[in-house]
Design brief:
This protein is of the alpha/beta class. The protein contains 8 helices and 6 strands; from the N terminus they run βαβααβαβαααβαβ. It has one domain: Rossmann fold. The two termini are 20 Å apart. Mean pLDDT is 87; it is low at 166-174.
């Protein structure tokens, strides 16, 4: 398993919740890219972006914990940053979700305007080829049309490369 992973994907697909699981159950450092503003890690992140050298940020993470998960809603203008992280050795994962189910969860969880969700989904649809190319083969359907979800264990096993049991086969997009 890669020591540092980035989980991005569809809104309400379980990115942050999975990051919390890794923090609480597997002793990972969990960094939510969208919620760490004002922290020391954020200042290192900004410096790494300015220098176009993600190793500065990754080395700082490794000093804190050799196992880290970055979760990110990933504004699709930032695909190059994800590509730079991948080039620096971060293993990228894209969490897919059935759009109708994700919309329901997004609204219920955030109480947010549907416009935010719809704008992000439009950007995802418009950048689908780039996303698939960048994250291949690590595209994982975590929330299905029947509203069932992968368990944290199933996701963790997928990230570690453990094959799923036939009766619990998850959807991977190739």
């Amino acid at each position: 398993m890669a020591k540092i992973i980035l989980v991005a994907g569809t809104p309400a697909s379980g990115k942050t919740t999975f990051g919390d699981y890794l923090r609480d159950k597997k002793e990972f450092l969990h960094v939510d890219i969208e919620a760490f503003e004002g922290s020391y890690l954020h200042s290192v992140w900004v410096a790494a972006l300015k220098l176009k050298d993600m190793s500065l940020f990754l080395n700082t993470l490794k000093e804190r914990n050799p196992n880290a998960v970055l979760t990110w809603g990933l504004h699709l203008d930032d695909l190059q940053i994800a590509a730079d992280l991948k080039k620096a050795g971060v293993r990228l994962w894209w969490f897919e979700a059935d759009e109708a189910r994700a919309r329901q969860r997004f609204i219920a969880r955030n109480g947010a305007s549907i416009d935010v969700f719809e704008a992000q989904m439009k950007r995802i649809r418009n950048n689908r080829n780039k996303i698939e190319e960048l994250f291949h083969p690590n595209l994982l359907t975590t929330l299905r049309p029947d509203n069932t979800c992968l368990t944290f264990r199933e996701i963790f096993d997928a990230v570690r490369g453990v094959p799923a049991a036939p009766e619990k086969r998850f959807s991977l997009h190739f």
